[in-house]
Amino acid sequence: MLSCRRKEGNVACTGTSKPCCDKSSDPQLGKMMTCADSSDINGWEKCWEEGTTPWDLGQVTPLVANLIQSETVPIGRVLVPGCGAYIMALAGPDRYVVGLDISETGIKKAKEWSCSSLNKEYFAFLVGDFFNWKSEEAFDLIFDYTFFCAIDPSLRSDWAKRIDELLKLDGELITLIFVISGQEEGPPYDNNLADYEEVLNPLGFKAISIEDNELSVEQRKESEKLVRWKRCIT
Question: What is the pLDDT of residues 100-150, one digit of tens each?
């Protein structure tokens, strides 16, 4: 744990009455909401089977590429819940990455897309429910790449508890926050930095760095924040 000093930027897309995600102008988003928010517990599986995956950009995002180049990503064991295939870019001799997803089809596709990667011995894709998945070892880094906004808000406290359980005492949590407001339904659900703080702060986590994601893809411009968290001594 450490004493916290935080680098802070401006939070985008808050305080607006207009939804950041408008399903009326994005048919894929509307279909995703219908699939993933249905009473069917396999909603995410259905999205993958139908190819309704607007969150999947089909490439390593500029943010991830930049993080790797900056050499500021902790080494060791890394967990990416709700993963995509391109988390493999984080992997290497000093960093073993576990991508976890509840969808068997999603994991199957991730394995297919990444099978030719030169780093394939340094990552694994696993099918599992983040909220009850067991790991024999804790992680040095957990990277929540907009996973938080995809889960029902009633599960956010459980999300934080799982982060606390799976992360090493001196480990780091990195969250890419897709800030959304004024939306009546989801996923993705309304969320902002305060929602993360509400569930993480009681467990001793503090934001040590808050920055606008200047490398957001066009459809997410001015709507993303990169926030890094550590357990802190106050």
Answer: 999 898 899 889 888 888 888 999 999 999 999 999 999 999 999 889 998
Evaluate the CA torsion angle 132, 114, 80, 96 in order and state its sign. positive
Class of residue 17 by CB neighbours under 10 A (exposed 0-12, middle 13-18, buried 19+): exposed
Is residue 190 within 8 A of residue 182, CB to CB? The reply is yes
> Pick from 13, 3, 2: which is nearest to 213 by CA?
13
* CA separation for the pair 128, 137 (Å, rounded): 16
DSSP 104-165: HHHHHHHHHHHTT-TTGGGEEEEE--TTT---SS-EEEEEEES-GGGS-GGGHHHHHHHHHH
Residues 142/116, Cβ–Cβ less than 8 Å:
no
pTM score, whole prediction:
0.83
Burial class (CB within 10 angstroms; exposed 0-12, middle 13-18, buried 19+) of 93? exposed
With the CA atoms of 152, 228, 12 and 215 taken in that order, what torsion angle do they form, in degrees rounded to the nearest 10?
A: -110
184-230 confidence digits (pLDDT tens): 778 889 999 999 999 999 999 999 999 988 766 656 656 789 999 99
Residue 225, classed as helix, strand or coil, is: strand
